[in-house]
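We now fix the convention by which a protein and its fold are recorded. These numbers are not coordinates but entries in a learned vocabulary of local backbone shapes. A record is reproduced here so that you can trace the correspondence yourselves:
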Amino acid sequence: MVKLGNSWDALLADEFSKEYYQTLRRKLYYEYKTQTVYPDMYHLFEALKLTAYEDVRAVILGQDPYIGPGQAHGLAFSVQRGVPVPPSLANIYKELQSQLGCDIPSHGNLEGWAKQGVLLLNATLSVREGLSNSHATLGWQIFTDRVVELLAARKEPMVFLLWGRNAQRKAGFVGPPHLVLQSAHPSPLSASRGFFGNGHFREANAFLMKYYGKGIDWQIYE
């Protein structure tokens, strides 16, 4: 059984027992046994472990984990300290500097956001080394759809930052009282087509200030 150590355990208990998830689990067992898969199995649910359901104030949806050695650790867009900052995250940092004057850090670990209530969730929670979207059809999308549905059912407002087509597919699950912000993905292939200058970090904080009296401290500290 998956143990997340917080309120997600009760909320997702039925999901973990469903046939699709049991099938997914069997496929994952085979993949981890025969392929190099990221992140390691102990970090598959790191986003949910670090940010309990009732603590979520913002959701950033990624596509799937990074495909290089040592990068993925269960949080969308984040890498462990000591790992070079990937291009998409570098563009996120540039936009933060442009919008909010944040200093650009030397590392790419985003756990500080997760601990403030930013759920850094990938639509697909695992991937084969070197092969983007290689686990997209295993069943993860059903699982993460359910996570988004549960969040959207909350009465407490939150912000959904949906960058790129994969994330935007989940927009249909979300309505008032939540704020949905959509733009191009921060990848170098698309950042100049609407991610740069999208104003999402400012808008998110203005919305959160209205309801909670404070926003997210988006600065990543050394």
Notes: The longest helix spans residues 19-34. Residues 164 and 185 are 4 Å apart (CA to CA). The first strand starts at residue 37 and ends at 38. The helical segments are 8-17, 19-34, 46-50, 87-100, 111-114, 140-152, 165-168, 200-212.
